[in-house]
């Protein structure tokens, strides 16, 4: 069965992850919200948490039980420092990982960032029929991810998740 694109207005939750619970991830979170709202989507919740694996997992799992949330976007904590644990948190709870998302984001970012794009561990996947994305905290990476990857594909992704 082909997707019907029934999802024209999607309800998102956004999580900003950082060393101190604020900083550029908060700014990137607000950028995500602005882009989504400009495209007529709904922001159901926005939170900032420290880059702590348990806190990240707890927040995502809480949102996955909320019937008003269809998609979750996390920003920050996807790098390679010892403090960056968002990738581990997200992938530990995903039912399926969309490896192509991170691969495509790194490919599209290569022209601007060159080899430093390899240090991004951005990923996407699903849990309990919710689309989940983990993005870097860079505002440019957030804009690219949301505008070029998430928005053009989210309706089809949600359709796919509902198929039995």
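-> sequence recovered:
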């Amino acid at each position: 069965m082909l997707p019907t694109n029934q999802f024209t207005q999607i309800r998102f939750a956004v999580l900003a992850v950082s060393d101190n619970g604020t900083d550029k991830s908060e700014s990137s979170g607000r950028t995500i919200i602005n882009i989504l709202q400009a495209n007529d989507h709904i922001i159901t919740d926005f939170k900032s948490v420290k880059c702590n694996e348990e806190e990240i997992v707890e927040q995502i799992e809480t949102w996955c039980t909320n019937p008003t949330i269809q998609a979750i976007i996390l920003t920050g904590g996807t790098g390679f420092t010892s403090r960056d644990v968002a990738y581990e948190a997200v992938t530990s709870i995903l039912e399926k990982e969309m490896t192509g998302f991170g691969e495509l984001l790194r490919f599209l970012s290569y022209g601007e960032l060159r080899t430093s794009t390899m240090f991004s561990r951005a990923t996407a996947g699903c849990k309990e029929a919710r689309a989940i994305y983990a993005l870097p905290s860079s505002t440019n990476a957030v804009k690219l991810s949301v505008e070029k990857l998430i928005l053009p594909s989210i309706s089809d992704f949600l359709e796919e998740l509902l198929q039995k």
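Residues 139-162 form the longest helix (24 residues).
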